[in-house]
Amino acid sequence: MVSYRNIVVISTFLLASCAQVGSLTGGIEDMAAPRPIVSKMLPKNETVQFSSKSIVIPFDEFIQLNDARKNIIMVPAHATINAEVKGKTLYLNWEEELAINTTYAIYLNNAVRDITERNDSLIQYVFSTGLFIDSLEYSVQVIDAWTNQPVESCLVGMFDVETHELVNFNVTDKGGVARLKYLPSKTYSLFAFIDENRDLEIQEHEQVGFQEDTIIHLLSSRLDSIPIRLFSPEASPELRTVKSLGNGRFILGSNSAINTSAIWIDGKQLHPERIKEITTDSLMVFSTIKELSSIELVLQTDEFSDTTKLRFSVQREAAEIVVKSSKANNRFKPSDSLTLNVDDFIIDIDQSLIKVMRIEDSSLIENVSFTFEYDEVFLQLNRDSLSQLRVEFEAGAIKTSHGSNYNQSLNLTLMKRHKFGSISIQLEGFEDPVIIQMISNGKVMEEVALENPSSGYQMLEVLPGEYSFKIINDTNGNSKWDVGKKKDLLQAEEIYYYSKPTKVRANWSIDVVLIKE
To answer: Where does 204-266 have alpha helices with state H?
Structure first.
């Protein structure tokens, strides 16, 4: 028995010296982008007792504006900036009176491009109407809530707690770090979001993230060690996938449960026996259409109704009826049902037209029976002494809605238990229900939901190889990962990654302890 411990460590190193929005000493890392000539700016960057209503910023090459009304922003937003370019110089002006004793930042948020290469500049100009410029800084990392990987080009904004006005913002660098500068000592609310339309406002459909306590009491410059976890808001329920598979079969996929749906095709309700649940949010539908080239499909659930029109190839709908293994490699584990798939809805099977034999000597196997459901055929036989089988279907053995099969044979391999290993998983520190995912080469090989994590779980029939694990803290116990809700300040369910590889060998049992930290 081999036993060891895996411990998860989520890195939250913040690269405070790397921020995309910088002062006017340079622009972004792209050295081909236009760069301001700081010594010739009027007034100078970081001017105090600022009283002007205009700014002149010369650049080192000819420039053009890119949607200036949208991309040149004053924060706090106390004025609307007018912009004009003459040759290599940008002229900014406004009419509004600014607040006294206030630090302002003007962001050229991809608003300035060069003439030839169209490279963007991302620049911040700062001034104060008072005697000093606010000097506090705040840095934080943004990570994806599902992958725990850094998120680049995500906007991190400080908002006024009472007015909800944007006070300061920045975008994250390649390491997912945003550095907000020129902040006064006060209380803010903090949000990160992917500002798709660059309006500096969080839209319902935009990815968003926040910390457990969205309120930041900034008394001094701060490097936050707790990353912001970004997630995509839960979308309104709808059909996401409608795909024709031929012979009147359709795959329907949704972003919510549709396993109790009623379905109509061209105004006629489909009988429930012709609706097969694949998962709770995906179905296979079997219709009897033969010569139509398009249909109208309506799906109705308790939550939503959706209508779609689907066009397809008449030639494809008349495709031959083919029998296939349910396993891509035709290899079945000891616990796998011997299941074959048919390219149509099965009406009947003539067992007298099907033969099952041993491949090594072509001898017939007795006491074999067949059952069927939807588009699946199930073989029942004594597997103890069997390793490789050939199943032969004569033409007409399987009758379907659109015809019957042609002469065909399949070779199947029945794998033995000694070819597999097993993993006994113990969980420490988890109190809520969890979802365990066993991963190999980035692919989820097995997933199980545990209501009581302390009981652990044993994964059987694990092929030899190296595996890692992911634990989803299934707080509400619904056996799926749930994203957060901004309006309720509800975080996405936490995910823990255990990247240390677990090596499994045939006929061995491995003990693994996964610790929540």
So the answer is: none
Q: Are residues 74 and 180 in the same domain?
A: yes
Secondary structure class of 353 (helix, strand, coil): helix
Joined together, the tokens standing for residue 439 give 């991963």
Boundary of a domain, candidates 282, 317, 352:
317
Per DSSP, the three-state class of 445 is: strand
Q: How confident is the model at residue 32 (pLDDT cuts 50, 70, 90)?
A: low
Provide the 10 A C-beta neighbour count for residue 223: 15
Domain hosting 487: range is: 419-515
Structural contact between residues 483 and 472, judged by C-beta atoms closer than 8 angstroms: no
Answer for the pair 257, 280: CB distance below 8 angstroms, yes or no: yes
Locate 173 and state its tokens. 């660098």
For residues 463 and 409, what is the distance between their CA atoms, to the nearest angstrom? Answer: 27
Residue 114 sits in a domain of what CATH number?
2.60.40.1220
Does position 106 have pLDDT exceeding 60, yes or no? yes
30 lies in some domain: no
Interatomic CA distance for residues 69 and 112, integer angstroms = 12
Q: Are 142 and 150 in contact (CB under 8 A)?
A: yes
User: How does DSSP classify residue 460?
Assistant: E
Residue with tokens 């800084």: 137
Tokens of 17: 């010296």
Q: What is the CATH number of the domain that holds 250?
A: 2.60.40.10
Arithmetic mean of pLDDT over the chain: 89
**Stated pTM of the model:** 0.80
Q: What is the pLDDT of residues 75-93, one digit of tens each?
A: 888 999 999 999 999 999 9
| Same-domain status, 405 and 428 | no
